[in-house]
Write a structure and sequence with these properties.
The chain has 182 residues and is mainly α. It has a domain at 2-37. The chain has helices at residues 2-13, 18-37, 49-56, 71-79, 93-105, 115-121, 136-141, 147-150. It is globular, with a radius of gyration of 22 Å. The termini are far apart. Bound molecules: heme C (HEC) (2 copies).
Length: 182
């Protein structure tokens, strides 16, 4: 970062007046924050975002509803796609931006009602879930399911929502469409 080097040099030379420092920092700060957010900074949700998310995040498993996790969790996940829970997810930079924009805009902590509010309602301040199935909301919702059920062949993983929620692909999770295999 060139501006930073210049600042350090001026400081070490000892001629930078303290009063001037504040002005300099303010003048430089837009540049700093841009760099801090990084290349994945989503500008805004575009008309393509939802489609990119549906295709790119719904191929191996259900495209998980953005309202199932807070924005920081999505940002971390999208930043680590090459090491995605044991899978390698390769997305072009532009696709990553689109997907992240969609996930952050619909994230649990951006919601004013519905699912996101329910998810956040059970989240402790210190919780940093990286999985939907790790959230207190998920555990609470599935508290009556015996431990052994999750590892049955027909279920394989709690993340396999569609094993029990037969209309999960349409975003329907109500009691009527649930059937636990076994
Ligand atoms: C190449 C296949 C693949 C693609 C593409 C993929 N995932 Fe995954 N994902 C996985 C696997 C494998 C797991 C681990 C599943 C398990 O633990 O049962 C996983 C788990 C997850 C989980 C955690 C589920 C839980 O346990 O709560 C989330 C959230 C998730 N993926 C989001 C995404 C998003 C967002 C995208 C799109 C950017 C994406 N995935 C694309 C393979 C994929
Ligand atoms: C082993 C089967 C099983 C799996 C896998 C599973 N669920 Fe469930 N889920 C249930 C059962 C059973 C209920 C309780 C239904 C009830 O309220 O009687 C439930 C309840 C829910 C509810 C509350 C529905 C309501 O209207 O009260 C939601 C939302 C939900 N699950 C989402 C998910 C998501 C998202 C996943 C995947 C990340 C998932 N579930 C995985 C069995 C499962």
């Amino acid at each position: 970062m060139k501006a930073c080097d210049a600042l350090a040099r001026m400081r070490s030379l000892g001629w930078l007046p303290l009063a001037g420092l504040g002005v300099l920092v303010v003048a430089l700060s837009p540049g700093f924050s841009e760099n801090a957010i990084g290349e994945d900074a989503p500008a805004h949700v575009s008309s393509r975002s939802e489609g990119v998310w549906r295709v790119r995040c719904g191929g191996c498993h259900l495209a998980f509803d953005p309202a199932l996790l807070p924005g920081t969790a999505w940002r971390t996940l999208v930043g680590r796609l090459p090491e995605h829970f044991g899978a390698r997810v390769a997305l072009a930079q532009e696709e990553r931006r689109e997907v992240l924009a969609w996930l952050e805009a619909g994230a649990a902590d951006a919601a004013v009602d519905g699912l996101g509010v329910a998810v956040m309602g059970r989240m402790a301040r210190t919780d940093r879930p990286s999985r939907v199935t790790e959230t207190r909301w998920f555990r609470h919702r599935h508290v009556n399911i015996p431990r052994a059920t999750w590892s049955r062949d027909a279920v394989a993983s709690p993340a396999n929502c569609a094993a029990c929620h037969r209309e999960a692909g349409k975003g329907i999770f109500d009691e009527r469409s649930v059937r636990v295999p076994g």
